[in-house]
Amino acid sequence: MSDQILAQRKRGLEESFFAEHNRELLERLRQKVDSENRRESLTQTSGIQNESVVEELVGLGLGSETLAALGLVPLLRVAWADGAVQEGERAALLEAAAKAGVDPGSDAFELFEGWLTQRPSEELFEAWRDYVGALGEACSEDSRLALKAEVLGRAETVARSAGGLLGIGSIAGGEKTVLDELADAFSD
After folding, report:
1. Best CA proximity match to 172, nearest among 89, 100, 98
2. How far apart are alpha carbons 59 and 10 in whole angstroms?
3. Among the listed residues 143, 129, 125, the one whose alpha carbon sits nearest the alpha carbon of residue 188
4. Confidence of residue 60 (pLDDT cuts 50, 70, 90)
5. What are the CA-CA distances from residue 172 to residues 1, 42, 84, 156, 176 (Å)?
6. Count of CB atoms within 10 A of residue 95's CB?
């Protein structure tokens, strides 16, 4: 009888161990599949084939739904050039987000809103530079130039929305420097 009880407890202990082990394996498998799905989705959405750039974007927690928000990074860079987002810049950024399809209530919008209140890290801008570089490799010269014109045009709109030092519509020195950095990102 005690052999049966001992055998049952042994089996229960083994099942408990393997159940916990299986849960851990399943969780790791889910995380791996989720990460692979995000990489694949980003690759399809963006057209970027450079695995290290895609991996960097995934590592930053960006999915295809936040790719539109990533397109707003240069605008944020301009808005934060003087150390704070001015009210006019905020309005211009929210308008740009709406035009980019970043809808209130979406994950991308929440991410973007966070960037409006807390300056994004330098790593985010570097990821954007890598993204632009990879896009430059993946698309034609005409497409790259069109993208450059669009991004710089939107960034200049944000820069002008703050008014600058000389009044409405002017661009302050720090914002001009950032606009030059953005243009350089398309030249690399």
Report:
1. 89
2. 42
3. 129
4. low
5. 87, 35, 13, 11, 6
6. 14
